[in-house]
Specification:
The chain is α/β, with parallel strands linked by helices. About 35% of the residues lie in helices and about 25% in strands. It has nine helices and ten strands. The strands form three sheets. Strands 5-8-4-9-10 form a five-stranded parallel β-sheet, covered by helices on one side. It has a three-stranded antiparallel β-sheet with strand order 1-2-3. The N terminus is likely disordered.
Length: about 290
């Protein structure tokens, strides 16, 4: 079992001194309140408890030394607000996300796209791209996304895959994501997987007209992903529309908030931002 704790230690304490703490003090660190009165500086400690419970192994995953005034900020990062924004292809997820960011402090927000977690083409046993249903949940490595969200909520950075939509492959490079107080995740299939949707404090579904979504899909895939009109239309009829009806549309049931007309609905976006600020205040009190 892995636990991540925010522990307050004295300015004179060192990593070696912390590693030499006896089991009694380690048990104290595992108390319900993860913040303990050891002084004015802070360190994030990773405690690995062996299954047998007869050995405790401490590893320092990331040290953060700050002054007392920053205590609340670090606490908020370790108790991040996670927001899921779902909806069909071309429903306006990116637009809504950007309008939410415009109304918040961008430095406090991390945005993650579920699309970044598409499996590499090599994972499909030699199938050609046109033989793969990329609108099915199985083509996404959702388990890795779940792990990354949990790590970020624990105060740890993660290396997110970078997916190339032209070659249908993951690049060798990755994107380093740092923990933030607010994590926004967007994707078509976010609410399909139970373990993933349970991580969201707010679940938003964008309900946009199908014709409008198709036009946006054609424009995006041609301009940004190097596809032809014919390939986009063939994919839409063969997989996009059927998978929307089978997975995306039913997942609307799990949404806390349904926004018609996507990014055009300024009133709904303002209400979402108000709710985000309210939840942040509540988490700050905790």
């Amino acid at each position: 079992m892995i636990q991540l704790k925010l522990v307050r230690i004295s300015k004179m304490s060192s990593a070696s001194q912390m590693r030499n703490k006896d089991e009694e003090n380690l048990d104290e660190m595992e108390a319900e309140d993860p913040i303990h009165s050891y002084g004015e500086t802070f360190i994030v400690v990773q405690i690995a408890i062996m299954p047998s419970r007869d050995k405790l192994n401490i590893g320092f995953s990331r040290a953060i030394f700050i002054n007392k005034e920053k205590e609340r900020t670090i606490g908020n990062i370790l108790n991040a607000l996670v927001i899921g924004i779902a909806g069909g292809t071309g429903s306006g997820k990116t637009t809504v996300t950007n309008k939410i960011l415009d109304r918040l402090d961008r430095e406090r927000v991390l945005v993650i796209q579920h699309d970044s977690y598409y499996k590499d083409l090599s994972a499909f046993n030699g199938l050609k791209p046109e033989q793969i249903n990329f609108d099915h949940p199985s083509t996404l490595e959702t388990e890795l996304l779940i792990q990354h969200i949990l790590q970020l909520k624990s105060g740890l950075p993660v290396d997110q895959p970078i997916y190339n939509f032209t070659t249908y492959s993951r690049m060798k490079e990755t994107r380093r994501l740092e923990p933030r107080e607010i994590i926004i995740v967007d994707g078509i299939l976010l609410f399909v997987e139970k373990r993933l949707r349970e991580l969201f404090d707010i679940k938003i579904f964008l309900d946009t007209d199908a014709d409008e979504r198709l036009i946006r899909r054609i424009r995006r895939d041609i301009l940004e992903r190097g596809r032809s009109v014919e390939s986009v239309m063939n994919q839409y009829m063969a997989t996009v529309k059927p998978m929307h009806l089978e997975f995306v549309e039913p997942s609307k049931h799990w949404a806390d908030i349904i926004i018609p007309r996507g990014g055009e609905n300024v009133v709904a976006i303002d209400m979402v931002v108000t709710k985000i600020r309210s939840l942040l205040r509540e988490k700050a009190k905790d």
